[in-house]
Amino acid sequence: MNEKIIYLDNAASAPIRQEAIDSMISVLENCYGNPSGAHKMARKARRLIDDARDVLSFGLGCDPKEIIFTGGGTEADNLAIFGVHGTRGGTVIASSTEHHAVLEPVQRLGGKLIRVSEDGSLDLGHLSSLMDEEVRLVSVGLVNGETGVIQDLEKIAEIIKSQAPEALLHTDAVQAFPWLDVASSAKCADLISIAGHKFGAPKGVGALVVREGIEISPMQLGGGQELGIRSGTQNTAAIVAMAAAASVTVAERENTVERVAKLRDALADKLQEIPHSYETGVELENGKVDRSNKIVGSCHFCFAGIESEALLFMLEQENILASAASSCSSGAQDPSHVLAAMGYSRDLAGGSLRLSLGHATTREEINIAMEAVPKFIEDLRKTGS
Amino acid sequence: MSGGVDSSVAAGLLQKEGYEVTGVTLKLWGGPSDTGCCSVSDVTDARRVADNLEIEHHVFNFGDEFEDHVVGPYVRSHAEGLTPNPCIECNRHLKFDKLMRRANALGFDLIATGHHARVVKSNEGLAVARGADSSKDQSYVLHMLDQQQLRQLKLPLGEMKKTEVRDIAASMNLRVAGKPDSQDVCFISNVKGSRKKFLEQRIDLRPAKVLDKEMRTVGQVDSIEMVTIGQRKGLGLSGQGDPKYAVEINTEKATVTVGEKSELYCDTTNVKDLRWAGLPYPGKVEVQTSAHGRTAPASITSMVEWAEPHVRVAPGQSLVFYDGDLVVGSAIAL
Q1: Confidence check: pLDDT of A26 > 80
Q2: How many Å from the N-terminal Cα to the C-terminal Cα in chain A?
Q3: What is the domain extent for residue A167?
Q4: What is the residue-averaged pLDDT of chain A?
Q5: Mean pLDDT across the stretch A45-65?
Q6: Residue A274 in contact with residue A303, Cβ under 8 Å?
Q7: In degrees rounded to 5, what are phi and psi of residue B158?
Q8: Within this chain, do residues A36 and A181 fall inside the same structural domain, yes or no?
Q9: How many distinct structural domains can be found in chain A?
Q10: Are A190 and A280 within one domain?
Q11: Residue spans of chain B under pLDDT 50
Q12: Residue A349: inside a domain, yes or no?
């Protein structure tokens, strides 16, 4: 067995950037004052948080004052949806392939879901048909967590503006940030969620961008931190680490994308050779696979006649760590709502595999995965499990 | 590993014996009535026990198969007025088919469970036999295992009393040593009225007339699907003289006929799916008609011929035949 961990689950959590660790430790050791306090260590903490806000504002294409730090992506999504609904009421609608952090709040508010096409892109006709003057918020993720499919937010924003001018656009950009220039891709969004652990910061920290002039109601009340929108003592060290990770992510993004695209394409081309394999979110033209509608970190397939859990188990025996659909709280693999929405049968969706690459993924790791995955699939198909 | 004390101890014992053990918890169910062997808190218990033992632990989601082979048939059986046994179907289709195939595919040699039963040598090769703790014996729900399944099965608790199992759990410092035994149907909560609520969500429950032998209406039940042969309570008859029992259920006509206790007794029980572990037994066997019921002697021809009049077996129930402790055959009551 190969000794080293081959980590192909970056979409679940990316490895932590050294810059994030260093900055975090420094804060933990030297700047433990409460950022809401008055003395000099408190003021220092406050300054670090505001500096972090400045750094992130570049990556997000917003004013620093528009950033609300949260305890992660789920909290940012919840705050966006309940927060907007709290001040504006009306109908909330979301793409049917959103993360549960969006779907659950939308369902709680009795909202509606927008269909997607087979390739995972939003069904704009259906979006149009759902638009009426009651709609106050539309939530469409910039990049899907399972399939890596990118949505065209510009087009979506146009439809919203022309048919429901009162409605705001929220985008969960949690999966987008490592790969896309969110500042431009999500420029048209009124609210943007990000999560630190997807791009090299620790878990438990994220942010919500709320464009100036938009009022949202807070979900937790208290000391009035984060402009009164998100009370609770800020996690200085995690916020600083997130800014450090964002900074290096943005600086290296172009190079990372170019390098990882080659690795992903090699891997996906290899998996295309497996009989009865279906790569999601791609277009096939004259035998060529067009993956331009996906982020380059995503290699996502469904394999007929196998079960994800068995495949993942075998990959793990070779130290290859990956996932299938989103994991439920028990750790079991739940059937994918994303693939169901894209029209994949439950059986085929049950054989899905998400290999998600990251900034640290190497050619050597991809070579090992390219050999292991086809072999295990063949083995599993032979045993009929 | 269900997160209960039995499977936890089974894992611990095998590990002590030197087996390379991997813990698996099946996620079978996630509905609102999630109280039994498949709830998230039980998965956590199982995982923490595995951590304790320093073995790997995985959760397999067999929810679709559970729906297809256990929950769906359970509901349909009730709709037909039968009394199903979902634990048997779960063992048959999930633990000893689906999981066994998965285990084989992943390169495991054996699977082990915390059932109180034994695998013993017999004329046919191997057979299921009662566990040493007669009050906890689970051979009834394992009766259907074939030679291939038995060859790959370890039941480390078969020779033990439950009290010993709890003592071992305590001595191994397993956090579940004092956890209460699970019971009843795992996908339906133990709270009173839950079974009805569960069935209501899936089928239309129909009211039925309660008739006496002369076909006079003497009462009413609000759902015929909830009535079982031999049932006395809940028929709306209280205060009407001698106790009466459901002796016939006709789901088509939506009637329940009640009668005296003596009418519940019968000399024979018609069966289907009659199956012997080896050659048919010409003589008498002991027949058990429910998971923890007593046995009664009978001869098995094309039907079960009771040595003494026997209380009627609810259609759909499994009848398991024993020779001493050994499971020798089975059938399903018609």
Answers
A1: yes
A2: 22
A3: 18-248
A4: 96
A5: 97
A6: yes
A7: -60, -30
A8: yes
A9: 2
A10: no
A11: 32-37
A12: yes
Find which of B61, B62, B102 to mutate to test the A interface (most A CBs within 10 Å of its CB): B61
What are the tens digits of pLDDT across the range B281-323?
888 999 999 988 899 999 999 999 999 999 999 999 999 999 9
| Partner residue facing B105 (CB), from A310, A329, A346 | A310
Strands B295-300 and B284-288: antiparallel
Distance from CA of A373 to the nearest CA of B (A): 14
CB contact under 8 A, B105 and A330: no
Please give the pLDDT value at position A242: 98
User: Nearest Cβ partner of A333 from B40, B61, B107?
Assistant: B61
Q: Domain residues of chain B, as ranges?
A: 5-114+156-171, 205-259, 265-333
Q: Does position A329 have pLDDT exceeding 70, yes or no? A: no
The number of beta carbons lying within 10 Å of the beta carbon of residue A220 is: 11
pLDDT (tens digit per residue) in A228-244: 999 999 999 999 999 99
Contact B29, B36 (CB under 8 A): yes
Contacts of B104 in chain A (CB under 8 A): 383, 385
Q: Does a structural domain hold residue A1?
A: no
d(CA B237, CA B244): 8
Q: A213, A248, A283: which is the final residue of a domain?
A: A248
Give the residue on B whose Cα is nearest the Cα of A331: B59
Amino acid symbol at A216: I
Cβ contact, residue pair A384, B106, below 8 Å:
no
Q: What is the mean pLDDT of residues A276-304?
A: 95
Q: What is the DSSP letter of B137?
A: -
Put simply, the chain B residues between 18 and 77 with a CB less than 8 A from any chain A CB are 25, 27, 30, 40, 43, 47, 58-61, 63-64
Q: Which of A189, A223, A248 is the last residue of a domain?
A: A248
d(CA A170, CA A2): 43
A350 touches chain B (CB under 8 A): yes
Contact between chains at A314 and B30 (C-beta distance less than 8 A):
no
CATH fourth-level superfamily of B5-114+156-171: HUPs (3.40.50.620)
Average pLDDT over residues A137-146: 97
Contact B43 A330 (CB under 8 A): yes
| C-alpha distances in Å from residue B304, one per residue of A235, B301, B308, B321 | 72, 6, 11, 10
Q: Which residues of B are catalytic?
A: 90, 186
Shared-domain flag, residues A267 and A191: no
* B163-187 per-position pLDDT tens digit: 999 999 999 999 888 888 876 788 8
Same domain, A109 and A203: yes
CB-based contact (8 Å) between A309 and chain B? yes
- pLDDT value of residue B292: 85
CATH code given to domain B265-333: 2.40.30.10
Q: Does residue A169 sit in the same domain as residue A205?
A: yes
Instruction: Extract the runs of DSSP E, i.e. beta strands, from chain B.
Output: 22-27, 56-61, 111-112, 117-122, 125-130, 153-154, 208-211, 217-221, 245-250, 255-259, 265-276, 284-288, 295-300, 303-311, 318-323, 326-333
Is A183 within a domain? Answer: yes
Q: State residue A274's pLDDT score.
A: 97
What's the CATH architecture for B205-259? Answer: Roll (2.30)
Domain annotation covers residue A259 = yes
User: What's the whole-model pTM score?
Assistant: 0.89
CB < 8 Å to B107, chain A: 317
